[in-house]
Amino acid sequence: MWCRHKLFLKLMRFFLFFCAGAIFIYVFVCKEAAAEQNWGLFSIFLILLVILLFYWVFERSAATSREIAVIAVLSSIAGIARLPFAALPNVQPTTFLIIISGFVFGPRVGFMVGTTALVVSNFFLGHGPWTPWQMLAWGLAGSSAGLMGILHPRLGHKGMTIFNFLWGYLFGWIMNLWFWLSFVYPLNPKTFLLACLASFWLDTLHALGNAVFYILLGRDIVKVLTRFRQKMEISFLLPAK
Amino acid sequence: MFLFKVENLTYYYPESERPALNNINLTVKEGEFLLVIGGSGSGKSSLARALAGLVPDFYGGKFGGKVFFNSHDLRKMDRRNLGKEIGIVFQDPEKQLVMLSVEAEIAFGLENLGLPPEDMLRRVAEVMGFLNLTPVKSEFTTNLSGGQKQKLALAAILAMQPRVLILDEPTSQLDPMSAEELLNLVKRLNEEMGYTIILIEQRLERCFHLADRILVMENGRIVKEGPAEEVARWEVENSLPFVPPVARFFASLQQPRLPLTIKEGRQALGRYFSVSGPQGGHQPSRQTLPNLLRKPVKKKKVLLEPEPASQLKDVWFTYPNGREALRGINLSVKKSEFVVVLGENAAGKSTLLKQMAGLLQPGRGSVVVAGKDTRKISSRELAREVGYLAQNPNNYLFCDTVEQELLFTLNNLGLSCEDRAVEILLERLDIARYRKVNPRDLSSGERQRVALAAVLVARPKILLLDEPTRGLDYRLKNELGLLLRELAQEGLSVVLVTHDVEFCAEHAARVIIMFDGRIIADGPPEEILNGSLFYSPQMNRLFKGYAQGVLTVQDGIRALALNGDFPYVVQA
Amino acid sequence: MSYGFFYRPKGVFLQTLHPSAALVYLGVLFLLTLFFTHPLYLLAIFLALGLVAWAAEALDAWETCLKVGLGMVVLIMLINPLAVRAGTSIIWSGPEVPVLGRLTISLESICYGAAMGLRLLNVISVFCLYNCLVHPDRALGIFSRFAPKSALIISLATRMLPTLARELSEIKEAQQTRGVDFGSGSWRERLKRYSTIFNVLLFTSMEGSLQVAEAMHARALGSGPRTCYQREPFRPRDAICLFAGGGALAAALCAKYTGAGDYHYYPQLGQLFSGFTDLIFLAAVLAGVLAPVVLSWGWQKCSSLRSKI
After folding, report:
1. Which domains, and CATH codes, for chain B?
2. Residue B398 is nearest to which of C140, C200, C207, comparing CB atoms?
3. Shortest CA distance to A124 belongs to which of A76, A172, A90?
4. Which domain holds residue C128?
5. How close A66 gets to chain B, by Cα (Å)?
6. What is the mean pLDDT of residues B397-423?
7. pLDDT at B414
8. What is the C-alpha separation between A220 and C171, in angstroms, rounded?
C-alpha cells in the first residue's frame, strides 16, 4: 500500500533522462539563449515541471483517506516545527522530520510531506521565489530517505545521522543553484563555488542541526511512526460468529 | 418497513480480544429519534460506526452478523450510495473539518459524491441559509468558535442530504449554549424535516425527552430498550446513573406518570404542594417555604487565621493581543477548600487557573501561592506546590508506561517517592493494573486519571483542573467528583473550572461565577446556584417557588419530606 | 505563539479578482522580471510593482519583503564582482586567492550585481503581492481541479497548523507544571526538553489523523470520480486583467525579439539609451502591467464603475 516503488523508480529514471536531455538540448542547441542568461527563467520551468511530475504520480496513485490524513498531519507538524525556529538561521527540525517520514512511510509520502510542509509554512512565513526550489529540495530529501528505507531498511542510527547531516549541505546547494542560476553571471564552477562558500556556514548549521535533532529524537520518532504505520494497515479477520 | 435492521451483530476491533459489539439485534424505523446511552466503552460509538458502514470497512477487525439498510446488506452497498443515504457527525469538530473556508467545507462531501456543479451550488446555499452560516461563508474555519465548527460539521453532512443522521456525542466538546443550539437543530431536523436521527449522548438533560426510543448499552450489548419513561424507571431500579435529574427524581418517587421536562415536572410537583401553588419565584418568603439553605454560620473568631493556600490580590491581566482577560480579581482559596469556577466562554476562567499555576503572571496585582509570590519564583519551584491538569490529558502522556509518567514528574521536581506510595496513588485512582501499560492504549477516562496521577504524585498543596468533566459520562464524572472531594478533605485545595452546573451542584463547597474577567458571585452553592437564571441545576428550577436551596435529587426528596403532606414512600 | 495568515482580507479591488485572473496577472509580472536585463526596464517594473502594492494596500508587507530581500542583494553584489573577471574597467585589484585566482573588482560587475539585486527585489515583490492578493483557499480551489488529492492535503495541513500551534503551547504548559524548566540548563538539555514537546505533539496528532481519515471516509472521499465546486464568479474585470497581462507579455516578447530590453554589461557597459524603440516597448509593457492598478483606482473612486466591472 505504501510504496508502489517500481512505478516510482521507473518514473524517476524516466525523469532523470528527461532532465538530462532537456539540459543537453538547451545548452548545445540554444547556445544563444544560454548566453543571454535566461537560465533563471529556464530553471524555474524545469523545477515546476519536476514538482508537477511528482504530484502527478501521487494523483494517479490509489492513496487512501488514511494516507492523506497522515501526510497532512506530518507536513503540518514539520511545517510548524519551522516556525518557532524562524529566527535562528537554518536550524530547524523540519528537514529531519521530513527525512524520517520518508524513511518510515516510503518515497511517495516523503515527497508529499516535504513539499506540503513547505507550502503550508510559507502561507504563514510568506511565499517567495525560493518556494519551488525549497519544495524540490525538501521533496527530494523526503523521497531519497524513502528510497533509503527501501534499499537499506537497516541503515541504523549512525547511518541515518550521517544521511541527515549530508542533507543539510545538499539542501543548501540546491538553494544555491537557484541563486546562482538566477542572479549570477557568468555561470561557471567558480561562481558556483563562491556561492557555496558564501553559504558554507549556514549550510553547516543546517547540517549540524539535522544531525543533533536526529541523535536526540530520531529513535523515538521512528518508533512512534513505525507503530502507527503498523496500526494503519487494515486487517480483516475471519468473520466472528 | 424498517430503515435499519441489525441481526446478531458481533464485532471485534483488530488486536482486541473483547467484542466491542456483542450480538446486537435492533430495528430502526424511518423518521424515528433514537437515543443511545451508556458509559464510555459500552459500545455506543462502535454501534454508530457499524450503522454508518465504517465498521468494519474502515477499521478492519472481526465482523459477524448482518446490518440491513432499507433491506440492502450494508456491506454490499456501494460507498457512494452509502454516503448519500447515511450521514455521521463525530465528537470532535477539529477532527472533522478538512477545508480552509466554510463554503469549501460544505462542498467537500458533495464533490466527493460527484454531483453536478449546479446541484452543489444549490445545496450549499440552502444548507448555509438553514443553519445561518451565510454570514461566515468565506471565513477561515480555524477562526470559528467550537460551537460554530460543530454546526459546520453538521451542515457539511446535511448538504449531502442523507436519510439518516447519526450523531456520535456531538456536544461533548461544546459549551452548554452551543450544545443546546445544536440539539435544538437536531430536534428540528427530526420534527420538521422528518430525518431519522440516531443520537449518542452523555449530556442527557437536554435530549432525554426528545427521543422516541432509548437504547441503553453496556459491554457491547443492548441491555434495555424502550421509551424514555420506561428506561428512566428501569435505570433507577437498577441504580444506573444515566438519567437526567428530573426523571431520576420522579422515578424514585414511583409516580404512575413520569415527567421528563421541567415544565411537566413543575405541574406534577404542584400536587405535593397543593396548598398554594408556587410562591412568587423572585422574592419567596423564606418562612413559608421548606428551606434547605444552611443557616449562616457565625464566624468564630480564630486567633490565627490559617494562611490561605492561594491568594490573588487585585489581579489584572491583558494578553499580548489586547484582550483584557482578568480585571481586578480578588480571591483567596483556603486549605482543603473545593472551589468550582463557572462562567461562559472567554470569561477568564482558564486565565485565572493559569495565573494560579504560575503559567501567566499578573500585569498588575499579585498572586501568592503557598506563601510565595509567583513572580518571584521559578515555574519549577512553583510546580512543587501546585498541580495543574489541563483540558486535554493527552498532553501529559508520552512515556512508555504509566509508572514512567509518574517518575517523570518526580525526577523533574527532584522529589523522591516510595514505590509503595506510587502503588497507593495508582490504586486510589483505580489504574494500578495499568502500571506497566502504555498510557496511549487506555480509554479517555483512564488517560485522564493517569494524567491526574502524574500531577498528584508530587503531592501539591493546591490542585487546579481545567474542564475535567468535558466528555465524561455520568458515572465517570461522579467518580471524579467523589475523588476530588476526598482529596479536599485530606487537606488539598481544589480549584476546578467547568461548564457543568449539575456537577457543581453535586460536589462543590464553594462556587465562583466569572463574567468578562471579573468575579460576579462567590459563595456556597446553595446560595449562588439557588434561583440563578442560568447557573441553576435542573432540580433547582423544578423546585423554584416550592422550596429553597434544592440542588440535587437528594435535596428534592428532603424538601418533600419537610413539606409534611408527602403521600408516597421515599425510596432513595 | 500565534500565527496569522500572511493573507488578510482588506476588501480591495485586487483581492476581488478571480483567482485564476490574479494568478495569470502575477505570473506575467514574474515572467517580466526575469525577461529583461536592462536596468531601466528593471527599475520601471520595480516602480510599477510599488504601485500595485499601493493599490493592494500592502505597502507595509512590501516593505517587510524588501528588507528580507536586501540581505540577499548584498550577497549578489558581493559574489558577482568577486568572481567575475569579464569586466574591463577595473577599479580594484586584490591578492591571489587559491581556487579563485586573482581577485579583481570591475565597474561592470558592480553594475551587473546591482541590476541583479534589483531583479531579485522585483521577484520577491511579485511573491509578496501574491501573498497579499490571493486567498490561499481560492488558489487551492483552482489547483484542486487538476490535483484534488494534493490540494486536499495542502488545505488539510494548513487548517491543522494553527490548531497544532495551540496544542504545542498547551503541551509546553503541561510540561512546565510538571517541573520542566524551559529557561535553564545547557543548550543540549534545552533542546531535549523542546524535543519532548514535539514528541507529545506527534503522538497526539497521529492519533488524531485516524479520526480525520475516518471523517473523510464517511464523507465519501475516494468513492469514485470527483466533481469540482465552482463558487468564483467571472467578471469583466477579470477579463480586463487577463487581457492586460496578455498584452504586457506580448509587448515584452516583441521587445525581446527586436532586442529592446536587453543590455550588455560585459565586457563594457552599453549605452543606457539606444533609441526610442526601447521606450516605446517599455511604455507598452507598463500599460499592460498598470491597467489593473488604474481599474482599482477607478473602482474606488467611481461608484458607477463598480457595478459595471
Report:
1. 2-101+162-226 (3.40.50.300), 240-268+540-572 (no CATH), 310-539 (3.40.50.300)
2. C200
3. A76
4. 13-139+235-308
5. 9
6. 88
7. 86
8. 17
Amino acid at B483: L
Residue A185, amino acid: Y
Using CB atoms, which chains have 3+ pairs under 8 A with C? Answer: A, B
Determine the residue of chain C that is closest to B123 in CA distance.
Answer: C229
Question: Cis (ω within 30 of 0) for the bond into C267?
Answer: yes
Cβ separation C214–B58 shorter than 8 A: yes
Task: Confirm or reject contact between B14 and chain A (CB < 8 A).
Answer: yes
Burial of B33 (0-12, 13-18, 19+ CB in 10 A): buried
* C189 interface with B at CB cutoff 8 Å: no
Is C288 part of a structural domain of the chain? yes
Q: State the cell numbers at A147.
A: 528510497
Short-list B502, B372, B397, CA closest to B447: B397
Residue C154 — very low, low, confident or very high, per pLDDT cuts 50/70/90? very high
Q: Is residue C128 part of a domain?
A: yes
B12 to A240: CB separation less than 8 angstroms, yes or no = yes
Q: Cβ contacts (< 8 Å) between C75 and chain A: which residues?
A: 179, 198
Nearest to B476 by CA among B168, B202, B247: B202
Is C170 in contact with B92 (Cβ distance < 8 A)? no
Report ipTM (2 d.p.). 0.88
Query: What are the angstrom distances between the C-alpha of B535 and each of B244, B511, C2?
Result: 16, 10, 33
Establish if C154 touches chain B: CB-CB under 8 angstroms: no
Query: Which set of grid coordinates corresponds to residue B484?
Result: 476530588
- Is C19 among the domain residues? yes
User: What's the rounded Cα separation, in Å, for the pair C295 and C307?
Assistant: 12
**C162 upstream amide cis, omega within 30 of 0:** no
What DSSP character marks residue B298?
P
**Hunting for cell 405535593 — which residue is that?**
B272
Cβ(C191)–Cβ(A212) below 8 Å: yes
Is B495 within 8 Å of B501 (Cβ atoms)? no
Helix (H, G, I), strand (E, B) or coil at B318: strand
> What φ, ψ does residue A110 adopt, rounded to 5°?
-55, -45
**What gap in Å lies between CA A156 and CA A50, rounded to an integer?**
30
Q: What is the pLDDT of residues C239-258, one digit of tens each?
A: 899 999 989 988 888 887 78
Strand order across the beta sheet in which B72-73 lies = B21-29, B2-12, B62-69, B72-73
Candidate from B54, B100, B121 with C-beta closest to C155: B100
Q: Which chains sit next to B, with 3 or more Cβ pairs under 8 A? A: A, C
Domain ranges for chain A:
37-231
Q: Which amino acid is at A128?
A: G
**Do B61 and A237 count as a contact with CB atoms less than 8 A apart?**
yes
For residue B402, give the amino acid letter: V
Cβ neighbour number for residue B175 with a 10 Å cutoff: 16
Q: Which of A65, A67, A68, A234 to mutate to test the interface with B (most CBs of B within 10 A)?
A: A234
DSSP 8-state assignment for residue B216: E
Domain tally for chain C? 1
**Helix spans in B192-289 (H):** 228-237, 245-252, 262-269
Whether the predicted pLDDT of A181 surpasses 70: yes
Alpha-carbon distance of B79 to B10, in angstroms, equals 22
Q: Which one of 1.10.10.10, 3.30.70.890, 3.90.180.10, 1.10.1760.20 gives the CATH number of domain A37-231?
A: 1.10.1760.20
Q: Which helix (H) or strand (E) holds A141?
A: helix A131-151
Per-residue pLDDT reduced to its tens digit, A67-105: 999 999 999 999 888 877 777 777 888 999 999 999 999
